[in-house]
Design a protein that fits this description.
Structural class: alpha/beta
Number of strands: 20
Pfam families: LuxC
Shape: globular
CATH superfamily of the largest domain: Aldehyde Dehydrogenase, Chain A, domain 1
Keywords: NADP
Strand content: 15-25%
Largest sheet: 7 strands, mixed
GO molecular function: acyl-CoA dehydrogenase activity
Radius of gyration: 26 Å
Number of helices: 19
InterPro entries: Ald_DH/histidinol_DH, CoA_reduct_LuxC
Protein name: Long-chain-fatty-acyl-CoA reductase
CATH class of the largest domain: Alpha Beta
Length: 494
């Protein structure tokens, strides 16, 4: 008997709509969910009069911090029925195992703590610019200083669903920038952001932050919806997490007045210097750190290690060294704690076929694991990755031996996001060159999935600053302006 689809309501400006008439399939086979038809509600969804955002800007920043703190207290999965429903659906739609998902859901309240919100807002935008008009000091111009303020914008957020924290961060960023948000949820996590919006309604249904957040689902590519939403009369910014096809599709709607901020998927890399082979103890230590970069979040993130360049050498002794390293890394991968990584619950069958095929090419590759869903370490016997490197997933990584780190540096391009590096001295030595090549985040080996400082740029840009509208106010000398009008003063003199 086919299971009834999960019901996924939509939230529009403080109202929950649950007439779930349309049914869609999630990204994992057999899971379906039903949502309301968005078409009849588009007029309520879109904010065509931007002056209606004045209520947001009447809030003090500390009012926003206090609201988010109260919200965070209510987002305890042990007590919040909305989050419990989101978790139950995510167990079926997400590529993450239950133990990893549970860890993320239990961590949600910490993102709303006042100290975290203040630091995030100050570092990513600047609280003074969010709160008022900030004078700009100048050693060139005299008289009244220019003033700048960051205003919120009407945004559509097309979010990713590989981890639930994407939706959490979007709600928080929308609040402290005083923006008006339409969040389009993904099919692999259609309910988490909705659960947060429902909690906001339970808490304060008429609060400006509640009424300026909408969370909806439509199938990407539905022109009936998108030609209405992607309209500069109703929306000023689109923040899109998505693959090449998705971003290209959205870009077809762009026109003057509509700004696209892309956070497209990247491929990360790893570079391990010869120092890893200083001793057996060092090699085991490095293998454990690499296992974390591969296995964290079950390798569902852009940040995870996939292709790993190892300065082992490519002669017979070097190949023996990297094979030992591959075996130790696979063993460490199997020992990761369950809140961090587990065997993949939906191992890619095409990838499994590729791995099995390599076992017949033992002169070119060594394969550790990959028999079931436990993950695998593929060790190349030349300085070239496997030809299916972009398909590596489900805790599968490819170790590539090199004689010269330049081989690894040349492999970096604009699609390379995070690079885990060992040892630290190698990171410092190569950081400028890697940046020139296109790398966007350089971390210590083992820290690829750890954001010790979340208030940093992302994918080589500052997306939260771009979410804002930066307004300039100038005050000029009246006498000078009159002289300009009569020709006794020139623009060159100004």
């Amino acid at each position: 008997m086919m299971q009834s689809p999960f019901r996924v309501p939509i939230v529009i400006r403080g109202q929950v709509l649950d007439d779930c008439a349309l049914e869609f399939g999630a990204r994992l086979d057999g899971v379906r969910f039903a949502v309301p038809d968005l078409i009849p509600h588009l007029s309520d969804l879109l904010l065509r009069n931007p002056s209606q955002m004045a209520d947001l800007h009447a809030l003090r920043f500390e009012d926003i911090v206090a609201y988010l703190a109260r919200l965070g207290e209510r987002l305890d999965i042990h007590r919040n029925a909305h989050l419990q429903a989101a978790y139950e659906l995510s167990r079926r739609t997400s590529g993450l195992s239950e133990s990893i998902l549970r860890h993320f859901y239990e961590a949600i309240p910490a993102s709303f703590l006042p100290a975290v919100v203040r630091e995030t807002a100050d570092r990513l935008v600047g609280i003074d610019y969010l709160e008022g008009w900030v004078p700009q000091p100048s050693t060139v111009h005299t008289g009244e200083p220019t003033r700048i303020r960051a205003f919120g914008a009407r945004c559509v957020h097309v979010i990713a669903g590989n981890v639930p924290m994407v939706g959490v961060g979007t709600v928080i960023r929308n609040a402290f920038t005083r923006s008006d948000a339409i969040i389009k949820t993904p099919s692999n996590d259609p309910l988490t952001a909705t659960a947060i919006a429902q909690t906001m309604i339970d808490m304060e249904p008429d609060h400006p932050l509640t009424r300026h957040l909408s969370v909806v689902y439509w199938k990407g590519g539905d022109a009936r919806v998108e030609r209405e939403i992607y309209d500069p009369r109703a929306v000023e910014k689109i923040v899109a997490w998505g693959g090449f096809a998705s971003i290209k599709h959205i870009s077809g709607y762009l026109q003057p007045g509509l700004d696209l901020i892309t956070l497209d998927p990247k491929h990360s890399a790893t570079l391990i210097g010869a120092e890893a082979f200083a001793s057996d103890e060092t090699l085991r230590h490095v293998a454990k750190r690499l296992a974390v970069d591969i296995g964290a979040m079950n390798q569902e993130g852009c940040v995870n290690a996939r292709v790993v360049y190892v300065a082992s050498g490519t002669d017979d002794a070097g190949l023996e060294r990297i094979e030992q390293f591959g075996r130790l890394t696979f063993e460490a991968l199997q020992q990761l704690p369950p809140h961090l990584s587990t065997p993949h619950k939906a191992f890619d069958t095409a990838l499994k076929d590729e791995i099995d095929g390599l076992r017949f090419a033992s002169d070119e590759y060594r394969v550790f694991g990959g028999r079931r869903n436990e993950g695998a370490i593929i060790v190349s016997r030349t300085d070239a990755p496997v030809d299916f490197a972009r398909a590596l997933a489900c805790r599968v990584a490819n170790l590539v031996p090199i004689d010269d780190v330049d081989v690894a540096v040349r492999s970096v391009n604009a699609y390379t996001q995070t690079i885990g590096i060992y040892p630290e001295a190698l990171k410092v030595r190569l950081r400028d060159r890697l940046a020139f090549q296109g790398a966007q985040r350089l971390v210590s080996l083992g820290a690829a999935a750890i954001f010790e400082d979340a208030a940093t740029p992302q994918d080589g840009i500052e997306p939260v600053r771009r979410m804002c509208k930066w307004i300039v106010e100038q005050t000029s000398d009246a006498t000078m302006l009159e002289q300009l009008a009569t020709g006794t003063h020139s623009l060159k003199e100004s």
